[in-house]
């Protein structure tokens, strides 16, 4: 419960910044959907969830006045472990020095996993919640198609890190005058 209040405080207390030493924070006016794939590195999640897993998934986001509201679902299976992670959070986009287009994320997670069986026991699925923070970068490939990299640190259950890359398609808002910049 304290995690939820801390997360809400951070999200609501963060002021909107316009200019910080050639870094521009802005809400991009585009709905986005995308595919992602990468590696999931768990630590302390469970005694039966120890190995690095390959994850694939989807993400979608829509703009609000200050940020993007983002959903992500990633899952993977390996070494008799079945793991899925669903997250919801806020994403803040930024542009640095007219070169780097990046984002920061903060939100809540839902983890559901089935740990590897032992010689004596088999285990059912376990569901737990947690929070995440992360960052990443985007780069326009052509028109509305972008490549996106993600680094997401999950806290609870245990600690885990997701490092992924994927494609994102932007559905531009017709009222936005500058629809070709990211």
Describe this structure in words.
This protein has 182 residues and is mainly β. Strands 2-3-4-5-6-7-8-9 form an eight-stranded antiparallel beta barrel. The termini are far apart. 7% of the residues lie in helices and 62% in strands. Mean pLDDT is 84; it is low at 15-19 and 176-182. Strand 4 (68-78) and strand 5 form a beta hairpin. It has a single domain (2-172), classed as Porin, CATH 2.40.160. It contains one helix and nine strands. The chain is elongated.
Tally of alpha and pi helices: 1
Give the domain tally: 1
How many E-type strands? 9
Strand % is over 45%
Order of helices and strands: HEEEEEEEEE
The CATH level-2 architecture is identified as Beta Barrel
Unreliable spans: 15-19, 176-182
Oligomer: single chain
**Going across the major beta sheet, what is the strand order?**
2-3-4-5-6-7-8-9
Percent of residues in helices? under 10%
Q: What is Rg?
A: 18 Å
Layout of strands and helices, then pairs:
Blueprint: H1 2-13, E1 23-26, E2 30-43, E3 53-63, E4 68-78, E5 81-96, E6 100-114, E7 126-142, E8 145-155, E9 159-172
Antiparallel strand pairs: 1-5, 2-3, 2-9, 3-4, 4-5, 5-6, 6-7, 7-8, 8-9
Short précis:
The chain is mainly beta and 182 residues long. The chain is 7% helix and 62% strand. It has one helix and nine strands, in the order αβββββββββ.
């Amino acid at each position: 419960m304290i995690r939820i209040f801390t997360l809400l405080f951070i999200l609501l207390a963060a002021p909107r910044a316009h200019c910080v030493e050639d870094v521009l924070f802005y809400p991009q006016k585009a709905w986005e959907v995308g595919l992602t794939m990468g590696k999931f590195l768990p630590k302390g999640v469970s005694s039966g969830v120890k190995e690095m897993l390959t994850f694939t998934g989807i993400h979608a986001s829509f703009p609000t006045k200050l940020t993007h509201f983002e959903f992500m679902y990633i899952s993977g299976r390996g070494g008799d472990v079945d793991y899925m992670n669903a997250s919801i959070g806020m994403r803040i986009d930024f542009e640095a020095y007219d070169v780097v287009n990046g984002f920061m994320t903060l939100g809540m997670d839902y983890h559901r996993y089935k740990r590897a069986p032992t010689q004596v026991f088999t285990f059912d699925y376990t569901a737990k919640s947690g929070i995440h923070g992360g960052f990443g970068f985007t780069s326009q490939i052509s028109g509305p198609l972008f490549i996106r990299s993600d680094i997401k640190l999950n806290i609870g259950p245990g600690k885990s890190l997701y490092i992924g890359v994927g494609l994102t398609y932007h559905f531009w808002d017709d009222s936005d005058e500058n629809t070709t910049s990211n």
